[in-house]
Each structure stands twice: as structure tokens, then as C-alpha cells.
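Response to reviewer comment R2.3. The reviewers asked that we include at least one raw input/output pair. We reproduce the pair for Elongator complex protein 5 here without editing.
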Amino acid sequence: MSFIREPRPRQQPFLLLQSSIAQSGIGIIHQLLEDASVHALLFCFLHSSLLSLQGPRVQTHDLLDNVAGYNDDYKDPRDHIRSAVKNVPAGPLDFVIDSVDTLASDIGSISDTYKFLSELLSLIRARSSPSRLVVHVLSPSPLLPLLCQPGFSPSLTHVVAHPPALLLHLSTEYLTLPPPLSPETKFWGIFLPVSERVHDSERLIFGAEGEGTGDHDELVVEVIVRGDGEGSRRRGVDRTLQGWSLYRGPCPLSEMIALKSLYTRNVVAEPPTILDPTQNVSFNLSLTASQQTSRAQVPLPYVHDGREKQSPVPAAIFYDPDSADDIDDDDPDEDLDI
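Raw output as returned:
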């Protein structure tokens, strides 16, 4: 089930979207707001392309120029955000911040940013209907490990954007394909350590043989779900991998154009047809029903006929010496004084 189109009653109150220099996930925010069925507040600190999202349910706040030391009209973004939340009518709300790293830079303190985000999450949880706090973070970020902790939010949907080139790299260098082409245990054991090394992903994209930029039309999405969004204390974590297309939204990995080569060359071929050697011969090699019956009635030699098997005779060696053998019963060493 898509983390974007998840049923509202089971929706997680906190959605953490993680991008990197190698692969941006900003297109997911575009689709999230375009498909919004509830009122949405967007606070744009980083990507100006999000300001084009307009609609009766989407309210955008342009904070791109609100930079301390560069704008004479600078205001603390926390005051602006608190004021906007108070003016939102009651009901479900999608509260989107792009990005919290820029917000932390404007505030000037990681700890103060963390406290402010905790305050916003409390406001989201206090609303009468299911609402959601959506924050966009660019890894590596000092806020990322703090926001992933259960202490911040027991329920979490963590969406990580990966370039499709990463899966192509695993298939060639580690001979490991995404499930179900490879066992899940083997795949995750290799995928997680490699994907967490951000510089390796950057090298795949921006290296000498890289494509020069992340794929804007398609990306691989790692979805980590903790809790069920209904206030339970379930501690299980579900981790899945799926594709995402700019034009189709969430899709299976096998339907991604960038990964088509992985699935076309690994399709299980049908077993070859076994030819019957008795065909096209000048004589008959098969048996009729009567011939098979007669064959079954023929007694076979050396087959136990049902009689009780007698106990075997103990083994013994019998030796008959010939004339050339020198056999003497006397002790050959009796003349020695031992």
C-alpha cells in the first residue's frame, strides 16, 4: 500500500522524507500535495518549484527569502509557522516543511529546531481528526538521527529516496538483485550497508562513469514503517522497497524503465521440451497391457521370496599349505637366550 494514498484512519502522524544529493525525493511532495484530500499547509524554505502548487486545499508559504542577515524584514520562522497553524480551521491537516535543514539554519540551533518540531508534532496530534506532519530532510543531516528516534515519535513512516543506479550497481558488483529475484535476507544485508554510505551513491551518480544527476522521472523508494498510526505500542518495523514514477506514482520495481534490464535478463526460462526417443522408429518399443501383465508375473532371480532369512554362518579362513611352504610348529627363536 502506498504511503501517499494510505487510508486516513491508519495514517501515520509523522512522515519523514529523506533525500540526498544523489537522488531528490521532492517529486513525492509534489504528488502528496496534488493528491491532498485534506487541507495542506506547505512551508517552503528550499525548493522554489513547490510554490507552483496551488489549489483550494493547498496553502503555500514562501520563506525562501526569509534569511537572517540577508533580509531586512527577517522574522523568526517559528512565529510565522505558529501563526499559520492557529489560523487553520479544525479538521485533518497535512503540515509540510521543506526542508528542516534550512529551517535549522535559519533558527541557528539544532536543539531549538528539534524542540520546535516536537511542538509542531504535538499540535498535529492534538487535532480532532487524523493529521500528519511531513518534513523533508537532506542527508547527511544532524537532524536525521534525532527525528528517527522513537522518543520523537513512536509511529513513523520513513521514506528514503535512492537512485535506480544503486540497484544496478548491486546487481553487477555484488550479484544481488532486488526481491523476489534474490532472497530478502541476502538483499537487505547488502543493500542497507551500501545505501547508508552516502558518498558511494554520490560516486555512482557524479563519478567518472556516473550519469551526472539523479533520475527525476523515476526513483527507488525505501519505505520504513514503525507502529500502525493508531496509538498502539507495536514495536515491529516493516521495510519495503518500491518504485516511484513522476507520471504514474508508486509502482513495482519491475515496471520501472530504469530497471528493465534487471528483470528482462532474469526471467525464468521454460524448461526445454524432452523429446521421446521412441518416436519415429521403424519398430515398436512400447508394450501392450497384456504384455505388461505377463512381464510382471515373471519371477526374477535372486529375489527374496518371503521365506525367513537364515542367520549367516560366521566367516572363517581355511588354508591348505602346499609343498613349498616352510611350516614349522617349533619356535624359531628358542635358541635365543632372551
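The mean pLDDT is 82. Strands lie at 14-20, 39-44, 58-62, 93-98, 132-139, 156-162, 218-226, 237-245, 249-251. Further pairs are available on request from the corresponding author.
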